[in-house]
C-alpha cells in the first residue's frame, strides 16, 4: 500500500489572530495620525492661498491671522491651530508668516503620538 501523507496548507487560527492584531494595530495608528496630516494639508492650502494673494502684503497681522483661521475653519481643520500659533514678522524680503504647532493624541494607555508641524511663507 502506498499512502500519501498530505500536508495541510493555509493559515491556522493562531496565525490568523496574529495577522489580525497586526493589521488592527496599524489601522488604529492610522486613525490617530491621518487627521493630523489632513489638518496640516489644510494649513498648507490656506498658506499657499495667502501667499498667492497679491493684496496679502498690505493686510495687517490680525487680518492675516483671520484669513488663515477662516480658511482652516472652512476646511474643518481649525481644532488644533490657534491664533497664538501664527507668528507674523517683517523681513527684508517681505512679511514672513510662520505657523508652528504641536498635536498630542492619546494612543495606548500612557503612550501618546506627537505631531510637530511648522510651515513658513513669505508674502512679497
- The total beta strand count reads 3
**Overall pLDDT score:** 91
- In spatial order, strands of the major sheet run 1-2-3
How many DSSP helices?
Answer: 2
Describe the global form.
elongated
Give the % helix.
40-55%
Rounded to the nearest angstrom, the radius of gyration is 24 Å
Number of domains: 1
Q: Structural class per helix/strand content?
A: alpha+beta
Percentage of residues in DSSP E strands? 25-35%
The major beta sheet can be summarized as:
3 strands, antiparallel
- H/E series, N to C? HHEEE
Q: Calculate the terminal CA-CA distance, rounded to whole Å.
A: 90 Å
Low-confidence residue ranges: none
Description:
With 124 residues, the protein is of the alpha+beta class. It has one domain. Helix content is 44%, strand content 26%. It is built from two helices and three strands; from the N terminus they run ααβββ. Strands 1-2-3 form a three-stranded antiparallel sheet. A hairpin with a 2-residue loop joins strand 2 (95-108) and strand 3 (111-123). Helix 1 runs antiparallel to helix 2 (61-74). The longest helix has 40 residues, at 13-52.
Brief write-up:
With 124 residues, the chain is an alpha+beta fold. It has two helices and three strands, in the order ααβββ.
Task: Note the main attributes of this structure.
3 strands, 124 residues, 3-stranded antiparallel sheet, single chain, alpha+beta
Topology at a glance:
Elements: H1 13-52, H2 61-74, E1 86-90, E2 95-108, E3 111-123
Antiparallel strand pairs: 1-2, 2-3
Helix pairs in contact: 1-2
Amino acid at each position: 500500500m502506498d499512502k500519501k501523507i498530505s500536508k495541510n496548507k493555509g493559515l491556522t487560527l493562531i496565525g490568523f489572530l496574529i495577522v489580525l492584531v497586526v493589521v488592527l494595530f496599524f489601522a488604529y495608528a492610522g486613525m490617530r495620525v491621518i487627521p493630523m496630516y489632513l489638518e496640516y494639508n489644510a494649513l498648507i492650502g490656506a498658506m499657499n492661498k495667502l501667499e498667492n494673494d497679491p493684496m496679502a502684503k498690505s493686510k495687517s497681522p490680525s487680518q492675516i491671522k483671520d484669513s488663515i483661521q477662516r480658511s482652516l475653519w472652512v476646511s474643518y481643520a481649525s481644532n488644533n491651530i490657534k491664533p497664538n500659533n501664527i507668528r507674523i514678522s517683517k523681513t527684508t524680503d517681505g512679511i514672513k508668516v510662520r505657523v508652528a504647532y504641536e498635536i498630542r493624541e492619546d494612543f495606548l494607555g500612557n503612550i501618546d503620538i506627537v505631531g510637530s508641524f511648522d510651515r513658513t511663507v513669505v508674502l512679497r
